[in-house]
Every structure is written in structure tokens, then in C-alpha cells.
Amino acid sequence: MSGSNALIPSLFSLIVGIVVGYILRYFYGRFKLQSIETKAIKIKEDSEKQAQAILAKAEEDAKAKVLEAREAIFQEKNELEKTIRERKNEISSIEKRLASREESIDRWSKTVEEKDRVLLEKERYLKLREEKVIERESRIDKELERIASLTKEEARKKLEEKVKADVDERISAYFNDKVSSLEEKIKELEIESDKKSREILVSAMQRIASDVSKDVNITNITLPDDEMKGRIIGREGRNIRTLENLLGVDIIIDDTPEIVTVSGFDPIRRVIAQITLENLIKDGRIHPARIEEVYEKAKSEVEQKIVEEGTKTFYELGMPMNRISTELIKAVGSLYFRPSYGQNILLHSKEVARLSSIIAGEIGANVEVAKRAGLFHDIGKAVESDVGNKHIEEGIKLLKKVGETSDVITAVAWHHEASGFPSSILDEKEYSETVEAVIVRVADKISGARPGV
Q1: How far apart are CA 87 and CA 250, in angstroms?
Q2: At what angle do helices 406-413 and 367-376 cross, to 10 degrees?
Q3: pTM score, two decimals?
Q4: For residue 295, how many other CB atoms are within 10 A of its CB?
Q5: Which of 28, 145, 272, 380 could disulfide-link to 394, CB 3.0 to 4.6 Å?
Q6: 342 and 440 in one domain?
Q7: Cα(298)–Cα(282) distance, integer angstroms
Q8: CA distances (Å), 324 to each of 72, 357, 399, 402, 409, in order?
Q9: Closest CA to 313 of 355, 347, 352
Q10: Mean pLDDT, to the nearest integer, of 27-34?
């Protein structure tokens, strides 16, 4: 009995152990399954994220390639259009020159034809007269032999003398009439040529219209009140000293109400000074550090304006930009701020370029050379004040530096005739005067001699 009693607890413990083991295994299995499911979900999420990242990157790459392709196509299109424009301009220039030359050839052809016609008429007239003279001689010979005692030889000699005198008189009268007629036609051609030249110049001048510019060395700036004068001067004059040192101009503050005057010979510096002061006045904060900051911004604005004006000028005149250097663009653009003898130099230069191209096209000269020389004829004033003809020498140096053609340089060198030729840097024989140089000189005088530039 005691043995049975001992076995029962053992069996119970075994059963409990089996049950507990099963329960533990069940929960362990559940935990293991959840862990695997969590890992699977995480792997799935990571895979989805990687797929999305790969897809986004692929889309970005595709967009970038599309943009690059569009940009390349757009660039090629622009280059093609530019090439087409250049070719059209060249063809138009060639057509104009050919038309002009054809007109000249036609005029000369008509003159030659007229001379040939006159000579043919003269030849026919002389031949007819000769036949009549021979016939008349024959009749007279017979008559003289019949009615006179003169021999045939004596009669012929007297007859020849008389006939010769008669023929010489008639030929002289006929020739004088034809010469007089030709002289009248030559005068008519000269009058017509002079009239045509005037029409060309008037037509060229009527196509051009510009604004009037006044050549001054001061700029007045309006202040909101007189208190602002003290702020511009600053404590112990530190503000005005900073302004004058940075701007390179004189700032005049006197008793004139609500006015500050900027004085200086360099127009670009005056413009930078004007913009700087106006921005400082508008901002209200005026001290050395702020002055330097506003000055740098104003300087950058003016430099940008110079590049814009230079680029716009070349586009307006239809000049291909692939032959224009950045230095030349800036030099041309800076003329926008430079007056001379009451004229804005850039507007004057553009007008001279247009006039030169029109005149060159009318008379069959090189339109491109005339246009470029017209634009660049005062380019030296971008770096040299207008004293005497020094600007021509400076302009030639700049044009040589940027690789301009010798034809353009020649026309620029001669635009003030021989008195302005820069013989110190150019050989007059090598750079002899051309028809384009004369055209630029004429266009310069037309533009400079009238208001409207």
C-alpha cells in the first residue's frame, strides 16, 4: 500500500510536468511565430522603402536626363536659329551689294550703249556722205570734161579740194552737236547722282531717332529734409569722408535747401554715387559699415547695367555675339553712362552704326565693316576722356586687343580724317583710308551735327 501511495505522486508530478512542458512549448512556439512575423513585416517594410527609394531615384534620373535632353535641344535650336539669322544677314548684304553693283553696271552700260549708238550713227553718216561724194565726183568729172577745157586730172584736183572742205565742215558741225548732247546727258547724270546721294542721306537720317543728352559733371540729389545733411556728414565728418573715399567723387553740401550735389568727371562714378546716396537716404541707416555695403551693391548694379546695355546694343544692330568678347561688351555698355559734346555716346554710336550700314548698302560697300566701325568709332571714350583725338588711339588699342579685323580698325582710325590718324601706333601705308572709313566719317558728322542723339 505504501508503494502505491508513493507511485501516485510520481505519476501526478509526471503528468503535471508533461502538461507544463506542453504549455511552455505552446507559448514558446507562439512567441517564436510572432518574432518571425515581426521580422517578416520589417523585411517587407524595408523592401518597400528600398523599392520606393530606387523608384524615386530612377524618376529623378529620368527627369534629369529629360531636362538635359530638352536643354541640349533648346541650345541646338538657338544655335541653329542664330546660324540661320547670320546666313540671312549675309545673304541680304550680298543681295544689296549685288543690286547696287547691277545698278552701277546698268548706268555705265547705258552710257556705253549711248556712245556706241553715236559712233554707229556717225559711221553710217560718214559712209553715206562718202557714197554721195563719190557719186557727185563722178557727175562733176563728166560735166567738167564736157564744158571745160580742163584736163581730167586738173578738174579732179579742184573738185577734191572743194569736196574735202565741204565734208570737213559738215563732219565738224555733226560732231559738235553730238558732243554737246553728251555733255548735257553727263550733267543730267551728275545732277541725278547728287540727288540720289542726298536722298540716301536723308533716308538714313529719317530712320534714326534718339534722345537728347546733356553733358554735365554734377548730379543733384533731393533730400527729404535738411536734417539728412547732418546724417550724411556724420559725427566729425566720418560718413562724408567714407563716401568720398569709396565713391571717388566730391559731395557738396551747402545752403541749398534739401539738395546734395555730387561732382566728378567720371560719369560712372557719379551714377554709383547717386544710387548709393539715394539708397542710404531711403534706408535711413548711415554709418561707415552700412555705406560700404550699399556702395558694393550699387557698384554691382551699375556693372550689371553696363553688361545689359552692351549686350542689348549688339542684338539691336544684329551683330553675332559669338564674335564679341566680354571686354568689348563692357566697353560698349559703359558708353551708356558717358556723354560728350551734349550727346550720349552710346546712342550716338548706335546711330552712326545704322547710318553707316544704310549708306554702305546703298553704294555697294561692305555693310558689316561699316556698321562695326560706326559702333566702335568712339569706343576709346570708354577708357579715355574726350580730349583731342586721344580716344582714337585708346580705341585702336582696345580693338586690337579683342582681335577686331584690320578693315574695322582702319575705318575707326580714319574717322577724324588724317588729322586724327594714330600714326604713333599704326602705319598709315598699311592702314590706308578705305571707302568704309569715309562712310563712317560722314555718318559721324551727320549724327554729331544735329540734335536728337
Answers
A1: 51
A2: 50
A3: 0.51
A4: 21
A5: 380
A6: yes
A7: 14
A8: 23, 18, 11, 8, 15
A9: 347
A10: 76
Give the residue among 210, 253, 249 at the shortest CA–CA distance from 233: 253
- Hey, what's the cell of 22? 506542453
User: Of 181, 206, 231, which marks where a domain is finished?
Assistant: 206
Cell numbers at residue 405, please? 579685323
Number of domains in the chain: 3
Alpha carbon separation from 122 to 110, 115, 173, 181 (Å, rounded)? 18, 10, 12, 14
**How far, in Å, CA of 101 to CA of 364, rounded?**
6
For residue 424, pLDDT over 70 is answered with no
Give the pLDDT confidence of 184-217 residue by residue, as tens digits: 666 666 666 555 555 555 455 444 444 444 445 7
CATH number at 254 reads 3.30.1370.10
Q: How many residues does the chain have?
A: 453
What is the extent of the structural domain holding 137? 111-206
Residues 6+ apart with CB under 8 A from 408: 369, 372, 373, 376, 399
Quote the CA–CA distance of 437 and 440 in Å, as a whole number: 5
Neighbours of 54 (CB within 10 A): 10
